[in-house]
Amino acid sequence: MAPVAIEPTFQKRDGHALEDISEKIDTVNVLKANMQKEQKERGLYDETEFDKNKDKSQFRQYEEACDRVKNFYKEQHTKQTVAFNLKARNEFRSKTRAEMTVWEAIEKLNTLIDESDPDTELSQIDHALQTAEAIRRDGKPRWMQLTGLIHDLGKLLYFFDAQGQWDVVGDTFPVGCAFDDRIIYGRESFKDNPDYGHPIYDTKFGIYTPGCGLDNVMLSWGHDEYLYHVVKDQSTLPPEALAMIRYHSFYPWHRAGAYHELMNEHDKEMLKAVQAFNPYDLYSKSDDPPNVEELKPYYQELIDEYFPKKVIKW
Questions:
Q1: pLDDT tens digits, one per residue of 240-269
Q2: 171 is in an annotated binding site
Q3: 106 exposed, middle or buried (CB, 10 Å; 0-12, 13-18, 19+)?
Q4: Domain boundaries defined on the chain
Q5: 167 known member of a binding site
Q6: Separation between Cα atoms, residue 50 and residue 288, nearest integer Å
Q7: 281 known member of a binding site
Q8: 126 among the known binding-site residues?
Q9: Distance CA 184, CA 80 (A)
């Protein structure tokens, strides 16, 4: 059946609950990244300019974050199977969920918090603009600034086909081959997954071949994978931007060095791009919200530059 456009029908969701677990995941990833830096660069690490005045008080929530995150990943690691991922991709291709401009999508994503908790200090658009502005201040290319702005837009999935939080946010990993111990909480966290111990899916290469390239690998379905499939054919963003979108939560790969045996030469170049993007995603958050109306004209110009079709099919 050919995809058809439908009027936007957004599910009523507890957006604050999704953003709360997303923040906890980010906190754990920030702490893990900082510990790795201390181990590798003790006494030599210099903070990036945009992060020098960052309030580190959120790190006091580490224990709570770990408990919440561990429970989240228990569900995600149980339910992200080959069968689920095939079904999710088939449903993605079967219809158009909504048609909106990129900026309209940003405003809709902003309601993830606002609908459920209007007193929350930060919103989705704050994080998007903070990431983009940090990239802009460091003089990075315009396409990378736009990538910073839109990199989390895939969370719109929460309004559409999502079954919960586990198929929207969280670190990503391949399905269809063995779960690597470098995935957060390790291989044993997948023991209740039907693919764990599977005679094919739980072998080193599974359904893949060495050097097949990550374009041919199914990553766990969520906001990264969803947005990647939305924008790759509807924008003129370069391959580096698409890699930043698709792989920014693929921490076992870009941070821990897992699954490199599946990479081809193109992936090696994309890895450098994702590693260059990652600090802006992790460390750009601030308690000082950006002036949205002041910044909107600049970013609307960027959107128009890289999205020739103003209305995007989501």
A1: 999 999 999 999 999 999 999 999 999 999
A2: yes
A3: buried
A4: 82-313
A5: no
A6: 13
A7: yes
A8: no
A9: 14
